[in-house]
Write a structure and sequence with these properties.
CATH architecture: 2-Layer Sandwich
Number of domains: 1
Oligomer: single chain
Largest sheet: 5 strands, mixed
Structural class: alpha+beta
Distance between the termini: 22 Å
CATH superfamily: RelE-like
Strand order of the largest sheet: 1-5-4-3-2
Strand content: 25-35%
Number of helices: 3
Helix content: 40-55%
Order of helices and strands: EHHEEEEH
Radius of gyration: 12 Å
CATH class: Alpha Beta
Shape: globular
Number of strands: 5
């Protein structure tokens, strides 16, 4: 499976200072590329959430662009989950309009 990321996700990841957390996120992305999503659920209109149980709960928001590709739209923490889902949907809708 191909895993693509948005500029917004790349920016969020680059802003993290915790190298251990970055490593866990990158490791999860590799597993997703192999088809192993782990703790994952749908959240809204094709948007899915992958939970990573570290540092207060990290969420990755993605959608399946086709049978062999996913796009990681955004990420955030449990504390900002509602706002992150809303922002991820805005980004997703923008991507679909292209």
């Amino acid at each position: 499976m191909n895993v693509y990321v948005t500029e917004q996700f790349e920016s969020w990841l680059a802003g993290l200072s915790d190298e251990r957390l970055k490593g866990r996120i990158l490791s999860r992305l590799r597993l997703i590329g192999l088809g192993s999503f782990g703790d994952c659920k749908p959240v809204s209109h094709g948007l899915h959430e992958v939970r990573i149980h570290i540092s207060g709960g990290v969420r990755l928001y993605f959608y399946n662009s086709d049978d062999q590709s996913i796009v990681v739209v955004l990420a955030g923490r449990k504390a900002t989950q509602r706002a992150d889902i809303k922002r991820a949907m805005e980004i997703l809708n923008s991507l679909k309009e292209r």
